[in-house]
Amino acid sequence: MLEADYLDLIEFNDVVDIYTQLNIDITEDIIRRVQSMGDISQATKNQIKILVQTNGQEIFNETLIKCSSLNNETKQALMDVYKDMAKEDIQTYKELYKYRNKPFKLSATQYRILNTGLKRTDRTLKNFTNTIAFNSQQIYKNAVDEAYQQVISGAFDYTTAINKTCQKLADSGVTLKDKAGRKVQLEVAVRRNVLTGIRQTADEINRDIEDELGCDGYEVSAHNGARPSHAEQQGKQFAKNKSDAKKFGVGYWGDVEDLWKEYNCHHTYTGIILGVSQPRFTNKQLNNFKNAKVKLNGESVPLYEAKQKQRACENTIRHKKRAIQILEQTGQDTTEAKIQLKNAQKKLTALCKETGLEKDYSRTKVTK
């Protein structure tokens, strides 16, 4: 089984690092092209249009090349993440393999499931290529248009308009739309798809293992600081059918199954043999998880709420670090971005000191 802490551990992996760097490289290229446009206050609309079309097409083509050059590196990184997942996944079933007197290893079928899941995620990332290239082209076009409009309207002089545009580009980076239609950073979209692929593959392997071992129930992972609706049911055992639920005094899986399909849920579940598999958590432990509170701003608040605020701080820090790298590489002023980074770091330090939460440095690092 994949425990929640393991999912947290692999959330920021080498695949995410690869696409973080891609985001930085593309954004730097866009900014340099904006910087080299010349004095747009002297340009006609037609001249700007020709410039945008030429540079936009070059950005599109170069982005395609950049994405294609990452294919082998991305696939190897994905293979490493999936192999780690498989090693961790089977550990939960160790005692049941022993109980059934079966060899403790993945079967040929389960390895096929693993490879299929790997290929599926790799294909998903490759399918991002055209979208990344198109969005990069559009980001450039929008930036030039915005700078041009600011200059000809008299709102800003040429130098100020270009600087403001470049600062904004560094801060926003390359974005994609998620399933809800919201803009998210390129690496965030990649991370979510990789985690979705890993969870889906792990679930498929688990279901095959359960058939092999004759499992008749499930047990859900548990962790501190779960969202309230999940904290109530996490860590418990459930029967696949109602008669077994009544017989063994456990919950019925059909009543809670949809909980673990909710957005950004890190809970997973593995098969058990009712009456044989001992619960991994006591009722006392689960109650402690559910009722965990910390001090924040002088008040007692649920641990879940504090962790959400911690994640927001970590996201801001990572975001600002990336923006600073881009600004430095393109010769832009980093003063404001560094002030914002320092404030975010102070906020995170204060939050962790008061709540007792530990900083997760994997969530605040940006590779270069």
Describe this structure in words.
This protein is α+β, with helices and mostly antiparallel strands. It has three domains: 1-212, no CATH class; 215-287, no CATH class; 292-368, no CATH class. It is 64% helix and 7% strand. It has helices at residues 4-11, 14-35, 45-69, 71-91, 94-99, 108-152, 158-172, 186-213, 228-231, 242-248, 283-290, 303-329, 335-355, and strands at 175-177, 183-185, 217-220, 237-239, 251-252, 269-272, 293-296, 299-302. Strands 5-4-3-6 form a four-stranded mixed sheet.
Main beta-sheet strand count, sense and barrel state: 4 strands, mixed
Rg calc: 25 Å
Topology, number of strands: 8
- The total count of helices amounts to 13
**What percent strand?**
5-15%
Strand order of the largest sheet: 5-4-3-6
The share of residues in helices is 55-70%
N-C termini distance: 33 Å
Q: What is the count of distinct domains? A: 3
One letter per element, helices H and strands E, the order comes to HHHHHHHEEHEHEHEEHEEHH
